[in-house]
């Protein structure tokens, strides 16, 4: 997609896998030049200009586990410390998250999102899923090893499909009860074990809105670090637009015409009396924009 970058993509960090798998090389980067991303738990810390704050390894608790994020464009190693506790509540209820998405330039937001996902996973996986013993950080933070049975555990990413459904030059959008009034978005759901992306799209749309879809195609993706999801944006068609709403999943679902969507987009954050366009940091914004402009 040749439009503005999708939020949380475009990190300037080189992940430098050749360093994180080499203990000696990694140790050699843990020096006075190394940078430490300042975090308040899992939340970003901003300077007076609204940018991320960086310190040095000397600022870190000597007992903290450190994750190697990679090398910055100046050749400095970047690290983040694992907090004492992982995420405990929904990210959308945290004002610091909304501030980060609105203030940080794309590269910094992507860097923060990747770091948050990684250190949050470590904070929530200090025990082995196989035997229950404690685990230790390995490969610069891109693995945890069980101290007892030796099992290897790797940072988790959960795939989520988020999809447009098209019928007669209209799009199907839905809203959850937690959404602000008049806010609608593309329907979404987790990919389940044993199904393809196309199958997940078809199943989720039918479960939530009672609509059968065909011709599923991929459009774009977005890492969503709350806690660690990969949003897989898709487009599909239906031949039968009748909606049967699953009210345990959605508060409402409607078909919107191209004209209605164009008007809501032009109206900006205030939207129209019937619709607020998806926010720019959400992949739904990019999906609907792609559809309108294609």
Instruction: Count up the helices.
Output: 7
CATH superfamily of the largest domain: Nucleoside Triphosphate Pyrophosphohydrolase
User: How many domains make up the coordinates?
Assistant: 2
Q: Compute the separation of the termini in Å.
A: 11 Å
* CATH 2nd-level architecture of the largest domain: Alpha-Beta Complex
Q: What is the arithmetic mean of pLDDT? A: 95
Q: Give the helix proportion (percent range).
A: 10-25%
Binned strand content:
25-35%
N-to-C SSE string, H for helix and E for strand: HHEEEEEEHHEEEEEEHEEEHH
- Low-pLDDT stretches are none
CA gyration radius, whole angstroms: 21 Å
Structural class based on helices, strands and sheet pairing: alpha+beta
User: What is the molecular shape?
Assistant: globular
Q: Just give the CATH class of the largest domain.
A: Alpha Beta
Largest sheet: number of strands, sense, barrel closure: 6 strands, mixed
| Count of strand segments | 15
Enter the CATH topology name of the largest domain: Nucleoside Triphosphate Pyrophosphohydrolase
Descriptive notes:
- The structure is a single chain.
- Helices cover 24% and strands 26% of the residues.
- By secondary structure, it is an alpha+beta fold.
- It has 2 domains: 17-124, no CATH class; 158-293, Nucleoside Triphosphate Pyrophosphohydrolase, CATH 3.90.79.
- Strands 10, 11, 12, 13, 14 and 15 form a 6-stranded mixed β-sheet that branches.
- Strand 13 and strand 14 (229-237) form a beta hairpin.
- The longest helix is centred in the middle third of the chain and has 18 residues, at 106-123.
- It is globular, with a radius of gyration of 21 Å.
- It starts with 16 loop residues before the first helix and ends with a helix.
- The relative contact order is 0.14.
